[in-house]
Amino acid sequence: MAEPVVTEKKITLSKHDRFKVAWRTQFLQGSWNYERMQNGGWCYSMIPALNKLYQKKEDRVAAYQRHLEFFNTHPYVTSPIIGVTLSLEEERANGAPIDDAAIQGVKVGMMGPLAGVGDPVFWFTVRPMIGALGASLALGGSIMGPILFFVAWNIIRFATIWYTQEFGYKAGNAITDDLSGGLLQMITRGASMMGMFVIGALIERWVNIKFTPVVSRIQQQKGAYIEWDKLPSGHAGIKEALSQQAAGRTLDKVKVTTLQDNLDSLIPGLVPLLLTFLCMWLLKKNVSPIVIILGIFVIGIVGHVIGLL
Amino acid sequence: MSGISMVLVVIVAFFAGMEGILDEWQFHQPLVACTLIGLVTGHLTEGIMLGGSLQMIALGWANVGAAVAPDAALAAVASSIILVQGGQGVKGIGPAVAIAIPLAVAGLFLTMIVRTITVAIVHLMDKAAKEGSSKMIDFWQYVSICLQGLRIAIPAALLLVIPASSVRGMLEAMPAWLNDGMSIGGGMVVAVGYAMVINMMASREVWPFFIIGFVVAALSDLTLIAIGALGISLALMYLALDKGGSSNGNNNGGNSNTGDPLGDILDDY
């Protein structure tokens, strides 16, 4: 018995087609709207594939329309979903009985869990980390800061888009089982750990608060400070002063201890930590971040005027 | 500022506006946007430094679900234009950062307006789909991206029209205590971004990582890359141990000889 399937010509998406889709995915959020969110960008991304798979006008109309349904997730993790949808559309174009509901079901089923991975991994771990690295270089005026941020970010981003789309395309329907499995959950957990570790470090390093009130002034003993009037003149004097300082002598006769010095001897960065906890508490009380930010500026100005900061 | 610089600034602003919604290449992040504006106006170093300061504040700003974050694009573009026009050099970075914050709020409202306009645009896309015209769907996608670009490009152009002398006059009229106070506020305001990130990620499991990170950061010999490497290693170790522990737990039921020699010794003891 001859199989009739053999005579049917099979349409497949080439690597080039899939790359075109991946490129277009980068404009996913361009038409973000309050009604169906990323639907326009989604349809826009799928168009090269849809046009290749469907030649008849009524097929195309149906395809465009089913890809203008509601969609919203993190922009980069859209790619594995695109990949799966591409493989479904390809099978459908070759005659497999896949209806609109199945395709929409896969999209909606995947976007929730994946958004839960994309946000902590990209917005709360990778971007703060690379951003802080670049910013810390930039604060010193180094052009390497912005370049490092831009290049590193875009390599990671496009690699994610392309490889996860390919992964989704090859795994096809099977990926939906994977989602409930351990892998995604492990990535999210690992990213959260990493992110929290770095955030802890960043708070210590980059939140600046200095309390200026003087706690004590102590007259130091002879020999604990540099006696400027007894130094030799000229560069010999500078050299002598530097070597005395290196030996542990202080610059002034009076040792001034500010409130900040006392706090630092407890643990460096204690006040920034407390300030962060305060902000977290306010945010949980649904105080708008904007209000908190403006409030902190007011505190900074008032604190400076009364001599506290 | 020369005519060419002005045109380039508006182009940079346009890119920043597009990216503010696309969130892909990150042209709207202060580190990139401020640097580019510094570059095209011949104030590269100030631009980079402003970008660094603003980036620290904007680290935790992200649009998640329905939550709305301040808009980094307008903040970065407008504050760097003001920095350049003010002509105070590096000294002007503190006030520029402070000015950027209300602008971030203004940018937010502009985004919301454009996102509402695009509702009408997707209906036009529906119509194009009905006619089977993929060209028109593409076209409307480009139109809405351009609208987002104009969202920042227009305010930037308006700022450029204000004469540099009046920007300078306004900045110089600010008393020193206000300037210094704003710089101090800028040092503290970074905490809000971190707090937003922590609120998103914190769980009982990850708090120890936070504490270790915080304590370790006091060792000033460690660069951020070293800290990052330490964090990755700790997370990997934790996950590996966790996985090993649970699979051991499952396998050990039958024979307790495999897997964990030290555990066996302790059990026997």
UniProtKB/TrEMBL annotation, chain A:
It comes from the Bacteria. Coiled coil: none annotated. Keywords: Membrane, Transmembrane, Transmembrane helix. Pfam families: EIID-AGA (PF03613). PROSITE patterns: PTS_EIID. The chain crosses the membrane at residues 137-163, 183-203, 289-308. InterPro entries: GatZ_KbaZ_carbometab (IPR050303), PTS_IID_man (IPR004704). This is PTS family mannose fructose sorbose porter component IID. It comes from Ligilactobacillus acidipiscis DSM 15836.
Automatic annotation (TrEMBL), chain B:
GO terms for cellular component: plasma membrane. The chain crosses the membrane at residues 30-49, 61-84, 96-118, 139-162, 182-202, 209-241. GO terms for biological process: phosphoenolpyruvate-dependent sugar phosphotransferase system. Keywords: Cell membrane, Membrane, Phosphotransferase system, Sugar transport, Transmembrane, Transmembrane helix, Transport. It is a multi-pass membrane protein. Its main location: membrane. Coiled coil: none annotated. It is found in: Cell membrane. InterPro entries: GatZ_KbaZ_carbometab, PTS_IIC_man. It holds the Pfam family EII-Sor. NCBIfam families: PRK15065.1 (NF011647). PANTHER family: N-ACETYLGALACTOSAMINE PERMEASE II COMPONENT-RELATED, PHOSPHOTRANSFERASE SYSTEM, MANNOSE-SPECIFIC EIIC. This is PTS system mannose-specific transporter subunit IIC. It comes from Ligilactobacillus acidipiscis.
